[in-house]
From TrEMBL:
Annotated signal peptide: none
Taxonomic superkingdom: Eukaryota
Source species taxonomy: Eukaryota, Fungi, Dikarya, Basidiomycota, Agaricomycotina
Keywords: Copper, Disulfide bond, Glycoprotein, Membrane, Metal-binding, Oxidoreductase, Transmembrane, Transmembrane helix
Protein name per Swiss-Prot or TrEMBL: Laccase lcc5
Presence of the UniProt keyword 4Fe-4S in the record: no
Organism of derivation: Armillaria borealis
Length: 555
């Protein structure tokens, strides 16, 4: 019931206005816990008493306060053993959780010690706005310098009014493809969709999808497909047809909120559950009007919550996640997991084909609250309109992407530090050609072409959600009630996906392809939003100030 806090958090924030107490609860002692006096009452109780309601059934769960220990270790999620980069001794599954309004204090401890892999690290909290805490967003060389091995860094940020399904991952080179990723859930005690489901818990309701590779990420170049698909951290390959699959257990007559996250580095997945429909209620942390489908295509970085009604005959049913690249299909249980009703035999379902009757149409997703895109209801009806030109050059396995003729090359000094230190003026930020200055409180429209390298590219904007006024596969512009999210597929040739947002969050915010190999190949730009406000609104900790000197000492 009670987890000991094994490592003392070391940020300056923990040494000011703190107190130390000794608590004894049912014979177990929480020793010398240091509690920030600015914590909300909930956060304080969660830390001191380690209440079961704050820590779910998943192994290694932390939050809203705790240590995330990054280390190397051997894993065999698909039957093939290899070293990986672990978060609290796991890939994909270590959960960070809290409640709406919580202040998060996540101490990242770098214990990486295998030089076949990247040994520094940084962590991005995908989907969280980081208003006033751009220094904690995580992208290396944009918002911070990496955390060197043997060091730790306290990410200290407020969830404000956000709730929903998020995730965390390394944001240094392609490190997260080696396993450094996991779910990040913020529960809303007043969820407007709560009447639609009965269960939303850590052990049943979180479903992660990912692609998995045999080789370390930094050795792969630009791969075109993984060796296996993992669902909740388990999977099979053709060479391991009897390896364990993930099992999702349900009780007949119960409605479950399933929080599905694509943690993958490359593949999108066509997801379905045999003989069951899915009612989508959340998209990338934003509540949407319920929309029932049989199949969902989910791209890297995206999240969907859907209601699963366990209303079928007691038995076992295939869960399928067919990847866009790599080995496709379901022979021998690859790309699969099992939905098992209580009372069903502990066996695999019979092989079946899953006909897709109603595939999700992204253009039919409508926000539940405050729908409508900012600006005027016409093309270019905004303060700032940008048409991005994408290109790719060089060999297919090792070339570079460009946006408006520039490939993103990480600067030696993080973009945020360039302004805070006075090293660069706002109109001269580095890397040249990849920084776009945006004024405060302006409406912005971004148009992005599809089909570069004959692929659909999922683009993610940090620090914001956006309204997708033109979705992939559509010729129609919807300004009235477009889907709202933070990752969108640019689609195929002849698509022109268009998004809108408002600049209400000063800071440097990445816009990049979430196929991590493509980001490493330069497929990104940075929006320098309201640079004149950075020194007034963004106040990094002393520990953040030390990241760059420590990292530079390792070069």
């Amino acid at each position: 019931m009670f987890n000991r806090l094994r490592r003392k958090l070391t940020s300056e924030a923990w040494h000011s206005h703190t107190f130390q107490r000794r608590y004894k609860v049912t014979g177990k002692v929480c020793l010398a816990l240091q509690v920030d006096m600015t914590f909300s009452l909930f956060s304080l109780l969660a830390l001191v008493l380690v209440l079961p309601s704050s820590f779910g059934h998943r192994q290694g769960t932390i939050g809203p306060v705790g240590d995330l220990v990054i280390s190397n270790g051997k894993v065999s999620p698909d039957g093939f053993k290899r070293y990986a980069v672990l978060a609290n001794s796991q890939i994909d599954n270590t959960l960070i959780r809290g409640n709406k309004g919580d202040k998060f204090r996540i101490n990242v401890v770098n214990e990486l010690d295998n030089n076949t892999y990247v040994e520094s690290t940084s962590i991005h909290w995908h989907g969280l706005f980081q208003k006033g805490t751009a220094w904690a967003d995580g992208p290396a060389f944009v918002n911070q310098c990496p955390i060197v091995t043997g060091d730790s860094f306290l990410y200290n940020f407020d969830s404000a009014n956000q709730a929903g399904t998020f995730w965390y991952h390394s944001h240094l080179t392609t490190q997260y493809c080696d396993g450094l990723r996991g779910p990040f859930i913020i529960y809303d005690p007043h969820d407007p969709h709560a009447h639609l489901y009965d269960i939303d818990d850590d052990s049943t309701s979180i479903l992660t999808l990912s692609d998995w590779y045999d080789k370390p990420a930094k050795l792969l170049g630009l791969p075109t497909g993984s060796n296996s698909t993992l669902i909740n951290g388990l999977g099979r390959r053709n060479e391991t047809p009897t390896h364990d699959l993930a099992v999702v257990k349900v009780k007949k007559g119960t409605r479950y909120r399933i929080r599905m996250i694509n943690l993958g580095c490359e593949a999108s997945f066509r997801f379905s559950i045999y003989n069951h429909t899915m009612t989508i209620i959340e998209v990338d942390g934003i509540n949407h009007i319920p929309y029932t489908v049989d199949e969902i295509e989910i791209f890297s970085g995206q999240r969907y919550s859907f209601v699963l009604n366990a209303n079928q005959k007691i038995g076992n049913y295939w869960i399928r996640a067919d990847p866009s690249v790599g080995t496709q299909g379901f022979e021998n249980g690859i790309n699969s997991a099992i939905l098992r009703y209580n009372g069903a035999d502990n066996v695999e379902p019979d092989p079946v084909l899953i006909p897709s009757v109603v595939r999700m149409d992204e253009s039919l997703l409508v926000p539940l609250e405050n729908p409508g895109a900012p600006g005027l209801p016409e093309i270019g009806g905004v303060d700032v309109a940008l048409n991005l030109a994408f290109d790719f050059s060089g060999p297919q396995d090792s070339g570079n992407f460009t946006i408006n003729n520039y490939s993103f090359i990480p600067p030696t000094t993080p973009v945020l530090l360039q302004i805070l230190s006075g090293a660069q003026k706002p109109d001269n930020l580095l890397p040249k050609g990849s920084i776009y200055s945006l004024p405060l409180n302006s409406t912005v429209e971004i148009s992005m072409p599809g089909g570069i390298r004959n692929e659909a590219h999922p683009f993610h904007l940090h620090g914001h959600t956006f309204d997708v006024v033109r979705t992939a596969g559509s010729l129609v512009y919807n300004y009235e009630n477009p889907v709202r999210r933070d990752v969108v597929s640019t689609g195929n040739t002849n698509d022109n996906v268009t998004i809108r947002f408002t600049t209400d969050n000063p800071g440097p915010w990445f816009l990049h392809c979430h196929i991590d190999w493509h980001l490493e190949a330069g497929f990104a730009i940075v929006f320098a939003e309201a640079t004149k406000k950075w020194n007034d609104t963004i106040h990094p900790t002393h520990q953040w100030d030390q990241l760059c000197p420590k990292y530079n000492d390792t070069l």
